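Lecture 7 notes: from sequence to structure.

We start with a single chain of 509 residues. Read the sequence below before looking at the structure.
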Amino acid sequence: MQRILEDGLTSVAASCDAAMWRKPQNARHHPMAGVFMLEIGFFAFYTRCTPARRERSRAIRDRPTRRIHEDEARMATIANSTKTVRPERALNRRAVAAAVIGNALEWYDFTVFGLMTVVIAELFFPTSSEYASLLLTTATFGVAFFMRPVGGIVLGLYADRAGRKAALSLVMLLMTAGIFLLAAAPPYAAIGIGGPLLIVLGRLLQGFSAGGEFGSATALLIEAAPFSKRGFYGSWQMASQAAALLIGALVGAAVTRGLSHDALHSWGWRVPFVLGLVIGPIGFYIRRHLDDSEAFLHAQQSARRATLGEVFTRHPREVLCGLGSVIALTVTIYVLIIYLPTFAVKQLKLPYAQSFYAVIIGNLLLMVLSPIAGAWSDRIGRKGLSLWSLVLTLALMYPLFVWLDGAPSIGRLIVVHAVLAVTLAGYYGPFGAMIAELFPANVRSTGLSIAYNIAVMLFGGFGQFIVTWLIKTTGSPLAPTYYVMAGLALSIVAVAFVPARSADLDAPA
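Now the structure, written as tokens:
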């Protein structure tokens, strides 16, 4: 009897065109199947066969179709948005790669020149005094920094007018040419004064190209980043520097430990520069196939052309804050990292090759921790994190070097470098975004280049020269800490006056 009732009610439901309410397949196995099917059949008959309910029945019947159409429309919207998002994400990745590779090449070259200071001093600047030879070499290292502000102004204006892509491609060509001169220069014993002159010319060309690198690359990174991830994207500027310093230290350690004294002085010192030449064509190719950011294109269309006078007249506070913020960055890099092997050999009497271990470990920590700190600054703010990092580094600087000088060893040198790398990562990470956000898009590259390169020229380029002179004058191996601590104090004041930014800085000035 139950089976007959079920079949009859199912037929009623089918005749009333309510296919969506057919009985479940397992209804005949359920003890309440008869009651359940009776209710379903009555509802189908009532909604279909009662004239007053036919419209409602039709709406119920058409509901699955409407849902399908809505789902299709939603999927189409997602597909269209995916077509927009994926190229933008690809552009972001290309922008990071383009900025990182050139920045890494610049800092790799500066690193290996600084790390090879002792060898270059003997080959190109031979004198009767060891300190005089070393001072001449560090002066050659610093002379390139006179060209950095010039390159920053020329290439920065070019980047704000012609685009980040054009400027970064030109920078890569000039940078590679400078490396070639360093790698190919014969020593003083071969051609006399011509050898040192080629070294100086190569350094000047590198200084000019490096002057336009930071501003253009940092502007590109920040403009390619989502607004809520500018700290993370900007941190790759410093992470790439740490990576370059790390690679330079690894190459330097391999060359100095793997080659004899004669081989190192005859040809081995050129190997790091030759390796740098390989990166040049790759970086140029990546940058030539890069698109300019939407922020730059918008600023180019809606704002007047960037001028040098506009940067100083409309943004003097930003230039001063940016310049002061760079001081801590440059003194720690050029004194604590690049000058460290020379300091370890000359002052601490430690093995030259083993001194690279501290540089390797410290830069590995900076490379890993800087992006983490940059991402953290997107959440808690850049200014506060930067100030805490600078204050902590300033407080630890002198005690750490007193401890190191008390019983010099490779182990203690590594500990000092590692501790300072951890504290400085909190400043290196948010630094790129913090300084880039000082300037609007239409003068961003120029403003960054001016602030950055003037500070680097004054406090970084001759940092090794000043530290060497201080050690000779005071007779204290702790003299480098005085210089670094003064730079940290100046940056603390500058960062304290960095204005808070909440508006969209991609709007033209």
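The chain has 22 helices and no strands. Keep this in mind for problem set 3.
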